[in-house]
Structure formats: C-alpha cells, structure tokens
Design goal:
Blueprint (H helix, E strand, L loop, with lengths): L16 H6 L8 H14 L12 H8 L3 H13 L3 E4 L3 E4 L5 E3 L6 H7 L4 E12 L2 H7 L6 E11 L2 E10 L17 H8 L4 E9 L3 H7 L7 E10 L2 E11 L4 E3 L12
Parallel strand pairs: 3-10
Antiparallel strand pairs: 1-2, 4-5, 5-6, 6-9, 7-8, 8-9
Length: about 270
C-alpha cells in the first residue's frame, strides 16, 4: 500500500494593514525556519504521521512562494535533525520517532527495538582477551597488563546501525564472557542475566566519531554523536566498562523520575 500523501493546509493569511499596525511587531523568522515550523507543527499534532510522504519541494515552493533553495535548506536541516528522511528520486517522509534510552536503567536495546515492531540485529566485530591498559585496568580494579575481555559490536535496527558498543569485562567475575554468542543475546543482556549488578555510573558526552567508528555506524565523520559511558559494580567489585556511541540523528538519551526518589512506571 503506497504511503498516504497528506494534503497541504493553506498557510495562515497575512494580517491586514490595520491589524498589523495595532499589534506589537512580530519577531522576524527566517523563511526556511517558517517551512520547518510548518512541517514540525503538523508532525507534532498528528496530521502527518511516521511514514507519511511530505509535500514535494515543488509543491512547497508554490504553496509558500519561496525559492527552491530555501525549501531545500529547510528539508535538509530537518533530515539532519532526524525529523524526516529523504529518499533520492522518491521524496521526503516523516521519520520514525527516535528511540530513547533510560539513563537510570540498563535497558535491553534488542527488546526495545523488537517492542516497536522492528528487526534487531547484533553484528559482532570482535570478542577477544587482551592485556589491560592503565586506563582500563584502573577502571576495572585490575593491574596494568592483566587479562581482560574486550568486545566490539554494532547494534542495528531494520539494518541501520543504531549503536557502536565497545566493552571491557572483568574476567575474574565473568570468566565465560568470551564464549557467548552475542548474535543471539547482546552483551548487556547476558551480564544483567548472569551477574547481580547493584551499582552503575553513566556519563554522557557529545562527540564526533573517528573514521573507523563512522564507517561502522555508516555516517559521516562530521556527524555529531552521543557517547554513553557506563561502569557497573557488584558488591563493590567493578564488572564492566562500556562506551556506547549513538548517531545523534538516530537516538536520544533521557529519563523521567519522581523527585522523592521513586521510579515512574508506565
């Protein structure tokens, strides 16, 4: 069934000279921003839903009387922000809502993706046993040069990379980590299932990927990313340190909680 193509509501009429002179002057809004606001409003109020095709550049030019360059800039910026997706030769569509990870919990990415009716896949880049650097050894309570597990995975949603996971695990506590099949069960799910974690630390940074990371995530090295760094403990013993890199246009991080310390449940 072809995507539903929404009609284009008429833009609000310009105020008359009388009303304009009697009202306070409105702040100047760039022309391309007017197009972005027009599209964003109709997405937010549900007029246009995920998967709906947007009016073409030609239709928006005719509707608003603006140049094609102005319309193109508005659509390009909204695509970069993840609000819409553009398909060459086909058109622009309302993008699916970006998944959001809870900063206060370890959430199963695989379960979250499948819950939304999408296909989940874990691509294992490497699982190895290496010598701990000073940084990793200190973070896991190990001596420099001591053995540590290292795993790199790319998590995909409908074939699109959503997260690059770079993880180090304390082999004293999880000796069987490297023998697991992480194409069947992602590393965080395995650790939550097998180790009673009772403490964790989350730090989020805005970063640019290096070339290798950008290639694995299938993005440009200039595209901003969210880096979630997590450490976990069990009875005061460090278990794992992991860095999860997410393309900013595909993912967001956030939490909701009560000020009295109790969690908010759906």
């Amino acid at each position: 069934m072809p995507p539903r193509k929404p009609s284009i509501p008429n833009p609000p009429k310009a105020p008359s000279r009388t009303s304009r002179s009697s009202a306070a002057p409105a702040p100047s809004v760039a022309l391309y921003q007017q197009i972005k606001d027009f599209i964003a409003t109709r997405i937010q109020n549900g007029t246009w839903r995920a998967g709906d095709r947007l009016p073409s550049e030609h239709e928006l030019v005719a509707q608003f009387g603006m140049s094609r360059m102005t319309v193109n800039r508005a659509l390009r910026e909204m695509a970069e922000q993840g609000r819409i997706r553009r398909v060459a030769g086909v058109g622009s569509f309302v993008a699916d809502e970006k998944p959001q990870a809870n900063l206060l919990q370890i959430v199963s990415l695989a379960e979250d993706i499948r819950r939304r009716g999408h296909d989940y896949q874990c691509k294992v880049i490497t699982v190895e046993r290496i010598s701990a650097t000073l940084e990793i050894g200190s973070a896991l309570g190990l001596a420099t040069g001591e053995s540590v597990f290292h795993a790199v995975c790319v998590h995909l949603e409908d074939g699109v990379p959503m997260q690059l996971e770079d993880r180090y695990v304390n082999p004293r506590i999880v000796p069987g980590f490297a023998q697991q099949d992480f194409t069947r069960e992602q590393p965080s799910d395995f650790l939550v299932r097998t180790v009673l974690l009772d403490e964790m630390e989350h730090v989020v940074d805005a970063v640019l990927p290096n070339r290798d990371q950008a290639a694995l995530l299938q993005i440009d090295p200039t595209e901003p990313c969210l880096l979630l760094s997590r450490r976990t403990w069990a009875r005061g013993v460090p278990i794992t340190i992991v860095r999860c890199l997410h393309p900013g246009a595909r993912y967001r991080l956030g939490s909701r909680f009560r000020t009295d310390g109790n969690s908010v449940t759906a």
